[in-house]
Amino acid sequence: MALRTSTLKFLFLLLSSFAICQMALAGDPDITSDFLVPAKQRKVDGNFFTFTGMRVLINEDFPTNFTVLKASMVEFPALNGQSVSYAVLQYPIGSLNPPHTHPRSAELLFLVDGCLEVGFVDTTNKLFTQSLQAGDMFIFPKGLVHYQYNADPNNPAIAISAFGSANAGTVSLPKTLFSTNIDDTILAKSFKTDVTTIQALKAGLTPR
C-alpha cells in the first residue's frame, strides 16, 4: 500500500522541523570545522549534503515485514559531526520492532500514520507504556530498552525517529543474546531454563 499524498507531505514537513529540534538535543562531540569530509571524498558539492535513500517511500509499496530506513552517518556521511540522524520505520499489520537500545542517543519518535503500542524499561526495571495515535510523539530515553508494536489488525503504521547523534547505534536484545556466540549454558543459567530451550530460541532467530 503506497503512502497517501497528504501523509507524505506531512512526513517531509516533520523531517524539516525535527532537524531544528535535534540541533538543541545534539550529543556528539563538537567539531572544529563546519563539516567533516571522508578521506576518500574527492569532490564536495551539493550532492555530498543530499541523501536520496528515502525516495523508496514514494516509489515503492508498503513492505510486508517491519522495515527501518536509516539516515545515519553510515548511510549519509555528511551527518558525521552534525549530531543528528533519522530513521523511518514502517510497521505492517501485526509487526514488531523488538526490544532494543540505542547506546549513544535518545530516540524521539513521531507517529505519522496508524497506531502503535510502545514502551521502555528504566534502570529500576519499571515499564512505561503508551498507546500512540497518528500525530503523537514519544521519547525513548538514551540507552534504555524499548520496543514498538503495531497491534492494529487492519492498518499498517509509519513513524519517523530523530536521534541526537549521527550514529546512535542499535543493540537488538534478541539478536545480541541469541544470535551471537554466548555459551548456551551461560544463557540457560541466566534465564533459569535449560540448554534445550536456549537452543530452540537460537534456532528461531536463524535466518531462513
Automatic annotation (TrEMBL):
GO CC annotation? apoplast
Subcellular location(s): the record lists: Secreted, Extracellular space, Apoplast
Describe the location of the Cupin type-1 domain by residue ranges: 66-199
| Chain sites annotated for binding Mn(2+) | H100, H102, E107, H146
- Which Gene3D superfamilies has this protein been placed in? Jelly Rolls (2.60.120.10)
Alphabetical list of Pfam families matching this protein: Cupin_1 (PF00190)
Q: Which domain of life is it from?
A: Eukaryota
Q: Which residues cross the membrane?
A: none
The record's similarity note reads: Belongs to the germin family.
Protein's recorded name:
Germin-like protein
Instruction: Write down the species.
Output: Theobroma cacao (Cacao)
The taxonomy runs:
Eukaryota, Viridiplantae, Streptophyta, Embryophyta, Tracheophyta
By which gene is this protein encoded?
Answer: LOC18590292
